[in-house]
Amino acid sequence: MYNSKVTITDKISNNVVMEYIIDLHSNDVSVADYFDEAWECAVDESLVNPLRRSDYEFILVEETIH
Question: What are phi and psi of 29, to 5 degrees?
Fold first, then answer.
């Protein structure tokens, strides 16, 4: 299993919106999969404008194998 921390940052203000620990239970996942999962969490928590994903930067901070 892969555990990664994804940071979402507002591109205009450079403020960190949120950091999420994302658990994807597959060995066949891409970085984009982690970003998509983090984006869904941020949208669900009303932390981002769901229509403006391009206004945010996604950074994969760390990755560990369990």
Answer: -125, 155
Residue 32 in contact with residue 18, Cβ under 8 Å? no
Tell me the two tokens of residue 66: 């369990």
pTM summary value: 0.83
Question: What residues does 7 pair with on adjacent strands?
Answer: 19, 59
- Give residue limits of the domains in the chain: 2-65
pLDDT tens for 25-50 read 777 888 899 899 999 999 999 999 99
CA distance 27 to 37: 15
How many residues does the structure list for the chain?
A: 66
